[in-house]
Amino acid sequence: GKHGRVLFGFDNGWAQGGMNDQGLFFDGIAGVAKDWKPTAHREDFPGNLCEKIIEEATTVDDAVLYFKRYNFPSLVVGTFVFVDATGRTAVVSYGGGRLKIDILSNSTFAKGYRGENARNLLNGIPSLDIQAMTQILKSCQRRDKYATQYGNVYDPLGLEVHVYPSQGALRDITFDLEEELLKGDHYYDLA
After folding, report:
1. 38-65 residues labelled b (16+ CB within 10 A) or e (exposed)
2. Chain-centre distance of CA 176, in angstroms?
């Protein structure tokens, strides 16, 4: 009753990014804590709303409905980006005392550490392919005490995720979602 999916995160089991078998994917960007407050007309969601969305939704429009229905405390420090197989994008954040949802179509989007650099690089490449995206992410990774642990490029049409562990990796890793789903529930420690 749920979509097959690949999720990424750390040892606490909280999904910080992932893609489902419909090509809907998300990732989060942590930032400065905001003065978030639950809204009375929304239900409180006791868990990871982004993971629920990837389990149940097919499109960006479906994903947006979950944020309109539920309070999600992770908006205190996070911005969440959802993209579907059509390229439609939703950027979900909290600011100024309210939920903010920006819908983008047929555009490139970059946010986070060195986001301006990524936007400039995106605007300067002739085609959006896996290799170009990987190079852009690698050029934007943090190397300070909050160093980037891994980066990934989602291919919602080919249902692949290209992952590059940032520290000491010998090579990039490609997950074919259809092949991984045939293996049943399992996980990998990227380290």
Report:
1. eeeeeeebeebbbbbbbbebebbeebbe
2. 17
pTM: 0.90
Beta strands in 105-176 (DSSP E): 150-155, 160-165, 173-176
Closest CA to 174 of 187, 164, 182: 164
Pairing relationship of beta strands 160-165 and 173-176 according to DSSP bridges? antiparallel
In 3D space, the residue among 171, 155, 151 whose CA is nearest the CA of residue 163 turns out to be 151
Q: Are 103 and 89 in contact (CB under 8 A)?
A: yes
Give mean pLDDT in consecutive 10-residue pieces for the chain, a chain of 191 residues. 93 92 93 82 92 97 96 88 94 88 81 81 83 83 82 92 74 91 91 70
Crossing angle of the two packed helices 49-56 and 60-69, in degrees rounded to 10: 140
Coil, strand or helix: which one is 154? strand
Nearest to 140 by CA among 111, 115, 167: 115
